[in-house]
């Protein structure tokens, strides 16, 4: 992956927004690859294809690219709110690539891939309608709330100017793919519990050695307060945690070893 962007294409345009769009779209066409299969490239969609900027020539996976000159934190601007909402409800959201570039040098600093099957409505925020003075007045856009997507579901393509190996990107994408079978309104909980389980795999100081992929129910319960803050309407956190662990087992992400012990695949 080449991180230098094709800046020469900017010369023809005056408006900064147009320059950014032309340069980042061309960069995507030359550098993005499919995370769902082994295709080393993506094909640019015909102009005006709603919400899909590229698709895979081999498996037809759709991708959308959103670029900005600010670091990727908080929220990113996406397109029309109602279209995005409908796409999430119908499970037809494209994979999203969020890009942060340095406009002074036209170089990619960070990029994350958010697989299409991790979106839920809690990732979406409605923007105020455009004012009457605007050409498209009344139009309602949206933000994607990156903070509401668990870190585990944001796959790093480029971090601080260093590209991730495509093999690792595809492995992480494949690990999340079982979520395709979870309804969008249940994904939030499933992803949050998965996120806790993944954090348990990180080595912790002062704890006895154990197989790195094993954990206990008690260890997950220790995060009950944190999960309760994420889901304030749910009053029965522990049964919900057990239900989500079951869901993750059915998805083939972990197995039950008995007596409150689990193993992550
Ligand atoms: Zn593909």
Unreliable parts: none
- The helix tally amounts to 7
Distance N to C terminus: 30 Å
The outline comes out as: globular
Helix content: 25-40%
**What small molecules are bound in this structure?**
zinc ion
- What structural category characterises the helix and strand content? alpha+beta
**Overall pLDDT:** 89
Describe it:
The protein is of the alpha+beta class. Helix content is 30%, strand content 23%. It is built from seven helices and 13 strands. The protein has helices spanning 16-31, 81-89, 166-176, 184-200, 217-221, 224-230, 237-250, and strands spanning 43-44, 54-55, 62-68, 75-80, 95-102, 107-114, 124-126, 141-145, 155-159, 162-163, 214-216, 254-258, 261-264. Helix 4 crosses helix 7 (237-250). The longest helix has 17 residues, at 184-200. The protein is globular and about 65 Å long. The mean pLDDT is 89. The structure holds zinc ion (ZN). Zinc ion binds next to loops.
